[in-house]
Amino acid sequence: MSYELGIIGAGQMAEAIVRGLLRAGLYRPEQLIAADVAPARRELFSKELGIKSVEANRDVAAASRALLLSVKPYHMKEVLGGIGEVLPADTLVISIAAGIRAATIEKFLGEGTPWRVVRSMPNTPMLVGEGMVAIARGAHATEADLATARRIFEASADVMDVREDQIDAVTAMSGSGPAYFFYFVEQMIKAGVELGLTAEQAHRLASKTALGSARMLLAGTDSPEELRRKVTTPNGTTHAAIVHMEERGLGSIIQGAVKAAERRSKELGA
Known about the structure:
The chain contains 12 helices and 8 strands. With 270 residues, the protein is of the alpha/beta class. Strands 3-2-1-4-5-6-7-8 form an 8-stranded mixed beta sheet, with helices on both faces. Helix 7 (167-175) crosses helix 12 and helix 8 (177-194) crosses helix 9. It is elongated and about 70 Å long.
């Protein structure tokens, strides 16, 4: 039996992608198959999502028209080395692993075959249908392959086409980016509690402020700088906070953090 999409690595990101596909009606559960070494993840995919789940990666690779690689970068060589000999040469391979280049995936699958690889970098807001995904094609992937990958991700995310040499920057910006915002909100909540609010009050205030601010950014009428200026009354409360941040170099710290993530992404693919 053949499946339209096989998933190797049934973790949270794969779950988010699959839930989006099922919710949008792009695939039926019987058109999907997943492999994972963890019994709990296989059980979730089988019982909650109705998707056939197996332990052996080879079973998924041999039976799928398109293959989603949702494994950790440091597991990629082992996983691909075990499926290259059973994977049909015309299978579309879509990777969401940070740092691992398309050429490296082709090499691990087996040199001499023009493997069709599309690299992607999704982020965890896909879990709530608000993800961001960048996609880039490898040397042998076609425009039709990109369209297939785009269709898969658009069920729960906005999708952006980029060059493969931009994927590391995307990883640093949006792949790792949610953690930066969570960290900032986490610190706001802690400060709110120290100032006398309950944890619930501080969480709600910080979270709704983050959501509303993001929607203002996406409205696209003003730049982030202009939006900040409109909130900042000279010598007011916001001004005091911004001055405090600037005096301690928060802008440089944030930029340096993003660049550190980009460097690490490159190291993972070295």
